[in-house]
Amino acid sequence: MNFDAFTLATDDTRQVLDKRAQPRRTAPPYEQIKRYVLARVENGTWKPGDAIPSETVLVKEFGVARMTVSRALRELTNEGVLTRVQGSGTFVAPRDYESTVLEIRNIADEIAARGHRHTARVLALQTSDDAAALASLGVAHGPVFHSRIVHCEEGEAIQFEDRFVNPALFPLYLQQDFTVETPNHYMVRLAPIQRAEFRIYARKPDAYVRHHLDIEIGEPCLMVERRTWVGEAVATSVQLWHAASRFHLAGKV
Fold this sequence. Notes:
The protein is of the alpha+beta class and 253 residues long. The protein has 2 domains: 3-92, Winged helix-like DNA-binding domain superfamily/Winged helix DNA-binding domain (Arc Repressor Mutant, subunit A, Orthogonal Bundle), CATH 1.10.10.10; 97-250, Chorismate lyase-like (Chorismate lyase, 3-Layer(aba) Sandwich), CATH 3.40.1410.10. It has helices at residues 3-21, 29-42, 55-62, 66-78, 107-113, 131-137, 183-190, 207-213, and strands at residues 82-85, 89-92, 97-100, 118-128, 144-153, 156-165, 195-203, 221-230, 233-243, 247-250. A hairpin with a 2-residue loop joins strand 8 (221-230) and strand 9 (233-243). It comes from Paraburkholderia eburnea.
């Protein structure tokens, strides 16, 4: 081994040893507290609406100054993870569900994309001669098909779907199991949509919708009315009710 090679090897070894001897950098204390809180929110230990430990408890647990704990909680509040109520404490913020109104998406796919579980409760699956429904579908004579379904994310109701369907386009609609496949997915699978129209309202739901969304009397909803076409025929007319406190609508053009 020549001298230059030996020197190079020695220098490389010294650099490795020097790096090992250097203490590992740790996150600032406030950041450690943020990670602690986030971990428990994300793994479900602390659920939306749950109170988290007080600042006094966190100060003792982490052995830091109160201002350090306050900074961590303040930043998590600004990030929408927590909500702080004067005189009551700090709570895990409710989940804020988001959908788009500029593209027709399957709600089960939206929920799956968030890493959550979709379930559905079928409240009604029947025929109907409702005059307004026939007019909306452009059908001269009934009956048409009618379904009412509550869509849930991790067991929490986030959408009440009240749908009328053109039986000429989907004659087997009433035979489907909509706890397994959503109406949206079923219809798009059979007949791709050519066009759609939307209207969005802020409305107070009736007692039936309010009960199945599990919301308080007086809480408003965002209600989307939507019609979709297959060819020249209206395929479906649907009202989608969302509790305002748990859902908002967004889109990009």
